[in-house]
Structure formats: C-alpha cells, structure tokens
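Structure (tokenized):
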C-alpha cells in the first residue's frame, strides 16, 4: 500500500485549467493522481488519510471561493456572536457562505450553528436572490434539529414577493408543517397580500377561503387585503364596499388604509364623486388621510380634468402639514400638461425641487411630453438635460417625442442630432416604442433629403445596418435626389433594394430613373433601335401580336447592361409584357 505524508497536503491552490496542484518543496503532482489517493481510501486502516483528504477538500473549496491563499483562523472556542459578527461584516455573499461553512469545518472545536446564525445566513442569501441555497439551509436546519421559527419563513415569503414569484411563496408556505412550524395568522396574511399584490386574484381568493376554513379569524389587516383584491376589478367593487360597511359589525373598524384603498379603487374606475364622498366620511370618522390617500384623490381629479379641485387639495395638504411626495407632484403635473398648462407644470417642478423632492422618471417624462405637445422644444431639451444631470437615463420614447417635435417644425438636422445621441448612448426602443422609432427615422431621412442629402443617405445606411424597416416614401426621396444629382447607378441600386424590401416603386420613381438613363446616349440609341425593330416586324408579319426573338434579345441585353443584375432578371417577364403592349399600339395604328 502507498503511504502519504502530511507534507503532500501542506499548500493547495487552483490553477486556470481547474487542476488541483499539491506542492511540498519540489514535489508536485496533478489531479489525475487522485486515483492513487483512492487506493488509500479503500484501505480501512487509513483513517488518518481520510481525515486529511476531508480537510484538503474543504481547504480547496475555501480557497477557491475566497480567492486567497490564506485561510480563516478561528479561535479554539468559536461562539455564535463571532460568526454573526463576521457574516454581517462581509459584503460578498460567496465569502459570507465560506465563513458560515468554515465555522463548522473542524469538528474538533465542537461548534454547531444555532437559530441565530442560520437565520442570519438565510436572510443574507435571500437578499442576494439565492433562494435555492436558502431553502437548502432550511433542510440542513431540520437535519441538525435546529429550531425553525415562523420569522424565517416570513422573510422567505417577502423575498419571493419582492422578485415577483408568488407561486414560490405559496409552495414554501405549504412546506411549513414539514419543518414542524405551524403557520399563524401572520403567515396567512403575508402570503395573501403577496398574491393580491401580484394580481393572482383567483388564487388569492381561494387562499383566503382556505384561511377561513383553517379557523383564522378575520382582522382589519386581512379584510384590508381582501378589499384591495376586490377593488382591482370593476365587477367586484360593490363587494368591496359591502365588506367595508360590514367591518364594524364584525368588530373590525375601518382604518385609514381601508379608506385609502377604496378611494384609490373608485378613482381608478372613474367614480370621482363616490371617492369625494368617502373622503369626507373619512374625515368625519376621525380617520386622518395620509399622503397616499390625498395622492390617489388628486390623481383621480386630474384624470377627470378637475384641476382646480386637485390644486385645492394640494393646498389643503400644506395647511394640515402633510408633505406631498413625488407622486403627488407628478399627478398634478400630468394634469397641467394634458390641459395645455406646461408653464405651470414647470413652476411646480421648481417648487418640488426647492422642497428637496427629486423628480423621478415619471415626472420628467410627463413634463417633456407636455412641452413637446405645445411646441416648446427648447424647454423640453433643457428638461432632458436636467434629467441626465440627475443621473436618470432617458428612454427611446422620450427621445422619440423630442425628435418628432423637431420634425414637426422641419428642423430635421436637429432631429438627426438627437437620433445620433440616442444611438451613441446605447438607447434601444422596446416593443412598445419600436413603431415610433421606425416612423421617426423615416421622417428624418425624408426631411434631410432636401437640405442635407449626404447625411440622409448615411442615416439610411445606418437604418439598414440596425434592421429598421424603410418605407416607400423614404426610398422615393432618396431615388429622386440621386437622379437629380446624376448618380443613376446609385439610384438604380436603391430601386433594387426597394423591390427586395417589398416596396413597389410608383410611377414618379420609375419616371425619375428612366429619365436619368434616357439622357445617356447609349440608352437612347438602344431604345431607338427597339422602336425600329418593332415597326419593321409589325409591318412584315401583318397582325401578329407576339414580339420577335431579336427584339427580346435587344431589350434583355440592354437591361443587363444598364440595370443591376438582380433587377434585370426580375424584369424579364415585364419585358415580354411591355413588348406585347407596344406592338399592340403600333398594330392598332
């Protein structure tokens, strides 16, 4: 049997070929000699070697994850407080896991993770969206007979809700009893709220019925979530109001959240009158409206074009000491811009900034759309610059509005500049803004053809490179420009690409191309020869309608000489038809 000294396992590292290298002075062997170690493992007497191999593997894993040749040096007596302190101090989740595992790597120290270290590690994992590892730690807690409390499950539920995975939250909820943890009212309501928040309404209502069947009594919190679910659908709004009226009879008086949910639902459905009445009732019942309630009602009033009432509510908030938030200001700005009062919206933006509320993407987008709609492009560009200085990145929709505004006033050069800025900034349209993206590109190319034709052609080439479809009007503009310039070959090439893209040239485009070629002497002579041949053949054959072979050869030869090859092949059938029509004309004469 082979014997191994501890010196072989003194230093371990990973090379880039993912081979294990064992160094001891001049001694070195690669990972393919693990078979030799296997011989040792097959011997029952080699318990020391087995222990060394276990330590070795753990060391390799630690060093691979830590990216360092130094190991964590634990004290002889490890405590939970030390592990918790190290885990909290480390920001990298991989290194945190290494710290967690290395604490129990040496069984000699007798340390075992408890509820505190397990719950902290699970919290760190789900914060980094490492859900699988977190659930594996749950299984490990069960195997090590560590107490699993409801708080751990609640944190996992909320994490799944944060990443919009409500079905996974339900799955983990149903596994609670497998870990000897009975769900309480708090767990039921948490999962129920996640389902409602993710619009899983049918599943949420089934979950609520199951909650009641399990003996969970109704509470203000659970009824508030139920009302929120019913307010999402116009068909169940009456049911939400009925539950609201029944809440006092069940010992659950409505609170500010209940009123706010109903007011928001009514405003969303356009029932502003009922929302106003509920708002007055709320104040009469000594339920103080929150900024969310005010914002919901202000948004509803702005959508119903009642700007005066919305502004009065904003002033009422100031009198009551309720500070408006970004969404409150954005709602009023949206109403002002839609009402053609973008100047007042600008003043509101300055007021918002003076009160140390940074505008969000919605506020800037609302204002830029309103300014462009009123033709105030200079102010819109200034808002766009302020937005970029704040660190917000405009999307393709915002650029599209500004570019369309410049196109409307025939400033195509400025529009092209913003197109270039958008492309250089790596801003790409999404599925919703793609059609606008295609339209403005074509409009800019058509506009540039009159004053900046070279730039128009460069933009056309860029469009083809980026897969942006080109419409027939854009092709017509470019073909007309090159025909006037005398560049007939480029014009013919554009017509060729036009046909390949499925656009049919109209009569104006064909006239432009043919007129340009007609001015050339060779083309004119060929056409005169065709005319002579047609007259001679029609006079000899007396009434025969089909064209002669010689005439077809002449036309096909001329097509191959003066048109692109692909187009020449495609119009051969048209040549036959054309010759037949011309012969008919001459024979009828």
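Design, position by position:
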């Amino acid at each position: 049997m082979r014997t191994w000294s501890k010196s072989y396992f003194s230093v371990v590292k990973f090379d880039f070929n993912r081979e294990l290298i064992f160094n001891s002075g001049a001694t070195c062997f690669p990972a393919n000699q693990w078979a030799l170690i296997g011989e040792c493992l097959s011997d029952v007497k080699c318990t020391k070697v087995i222990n060394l191999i276990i330590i070795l593997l753990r060391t390799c894993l630690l060093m691979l994850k830590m990216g360092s040749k130094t190991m964590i040096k634990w004290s002889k007596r490890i405590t939970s407080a030390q592990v918790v302190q190290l885990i909290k101090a480390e920001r990298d989740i991989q290194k945190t896991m290494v710290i967690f595992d290395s604490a129990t790597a040496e069984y000699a120290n007798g340390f075992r993770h408890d509820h505190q270290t397990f719950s902290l590690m699970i919290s760190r994992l789900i914060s980094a969206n490492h859900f699988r590892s977190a659930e594996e730690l749950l299984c490990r807690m069960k195997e090590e007979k560590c107490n699993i409390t409801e708080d751990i499950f609640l944190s996992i539920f909320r994490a799944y809700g944060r990443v919009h995975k409500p079905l996974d939250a339900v799955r983990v909820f149903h596994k609670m009893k497998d870990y000897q943890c009975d769900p309480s009212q708090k767990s039921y309501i948490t999962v129920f709220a996640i389902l409602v928040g993710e619009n899983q309404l049918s599943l949420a209502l089934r979950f609520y019925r199951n909650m009641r069947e399990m003996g969970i009594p109704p509470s203000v919190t659970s009824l508030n979530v139920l009302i929120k679910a019913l307010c999402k659908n116009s068909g169940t709004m009456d049911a939400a109001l009925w539950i609201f009226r029944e809440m006092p009879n069940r010992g659950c008086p409505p609170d500010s959240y209940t009123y706010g949910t109903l007011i928001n639902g009514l405003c969303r459905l356009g029932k502003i009158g009922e929302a106003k009445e509920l708002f007055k009732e709320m104040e009469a019942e000594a339920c103080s409206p929150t900024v969310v309630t005010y914002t919901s009602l202000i948004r509803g009033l702005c959508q119903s074009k009642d700007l005066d009432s919305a502004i009065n509510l904003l002033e009422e908030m100031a009198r009551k000491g309720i500070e408006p938030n970004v969404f409150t200001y954005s709602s009023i700005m949206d109403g002002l811009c839609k009402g053609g009062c973008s100047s007042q919206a600008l003043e509101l933006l300055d007021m918002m900034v003076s009160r140390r509320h940074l505008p969000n993407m919605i506020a800037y987008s609302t204002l830029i759309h309103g300014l462009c709609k009123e033709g105030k492009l200079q102010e819109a560009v200034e808002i766009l610059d302020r937005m970029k200085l704040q660190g917000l990145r405009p999307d393709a929709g915002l650029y599209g509005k500004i570019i369309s505004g410049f196109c409307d006033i025939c400033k195509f050069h400025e529009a092209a500049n913003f197109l270039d800025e958008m492309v250089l900034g790596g801003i790409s349209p999404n599925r919703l803004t793609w059609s606008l993206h295609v339209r403005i590109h074509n409009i800019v190319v058509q506009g540039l053809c009159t004053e900046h034709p070279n730039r128009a052609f460069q933009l056309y080439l860029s469009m083809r490179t980026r897969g942006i479809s080109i419409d027939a009007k854009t092709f017509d503009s470019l073909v007309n420009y090159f025909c006037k310039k005398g560049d007939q070959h480029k014009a013919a090439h554009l017509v060729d690409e036009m046909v390949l893209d499925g656009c049919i040239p109209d009569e104006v485009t064909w006239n432009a191309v043919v007129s340009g070629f007609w001015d050339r002497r060779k083309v004119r002579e060929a056409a005169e020869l065709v005319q002579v041949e047609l007259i001679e053949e029609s006079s000899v054959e007396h009434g025969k309608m089909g064209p002669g072979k010689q005439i077809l050869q002449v036309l096909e030869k001329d097509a191959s000489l003066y048109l692109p090859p692909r187009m020449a092949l495609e119009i051969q059938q048209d040549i036959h038809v054309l010759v037949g029509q011309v012969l008919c004309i001459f024979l009828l004469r």
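Reviewer-requested clarification: The mean pLDDT is 78. Strands lie at 11-14, 20-24, 27-29.
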